[in-house]
Design goal:
Structural class: mainly alpha
Number of strands: 0
Largest sheet: none
Radius of gyration: 32 Å
Order of helices and strands: HHH
Helix content: over 70%
Shape: rod-shaped
Number of domains: 1
Distance between the termini: 58 Å
């Protein structure tokens, strides 16, 4: 075999290999594209359901913190004798509990606001989620 015959045979085998790889990649691309198109509506529904659950869950936790602080205030005022309570401890409970409850109230209202966005304008929510993913 001459050098040109070897080059021709090598080029032929390389071209066949590239055609095979290209065909496999094309098939894989087509299969992946079909899978994504098939699964996209399900993924969107699951994202919306998860967003609703997430917002409700954290809003419930934050509002339960506020309720527990209010119950603590009720117990301090109605159930305990004021002579047995240390006033500084009560003041600290009211101050730190009040600050924590205020933070939870603001955050809980934010969660409710986001929940309303998910329920009222789900496409807008999904666009914002996609924008955050592309950052």
């Amino acid at each position: 075999m001459t050098s040109s015959e070897i080059d021709t045979e090598l080029k032929s085998k390389l071209l066949d290999s590239l055609k095979f790889v290209n065909g496999e990649l094309s098939e894989g691309y087509a299969a992946g594209k079909a899978f994504v198109i098939e699964q996209a509506p399900i993924v969107v529904q699951e994202m919306l359901r998860w967003a609703i659950f997430d917002r409700l869950f954290f809003a419930a936790i934050e509002f339960s913190i506020i309720v527990s602080w209010l119950v603590g205030i009720y117990i301090i005022r109605k159930k305990f004798d004021r002579h047995y309570l240390h006033q500084d401890a009560v003041q600290m409970y009211l101050t730190f509990g009040g600050i924590t409850s205020l933070i939870c109230l603001v955050n809980g209202l934010g969660q409710i606001w986001q929940l309303a966005q998910v329920i009222i304008a789900p496409r807008l929510f999904l666009i914002e989620q996609a924008k955050d993913l592309l950052k």
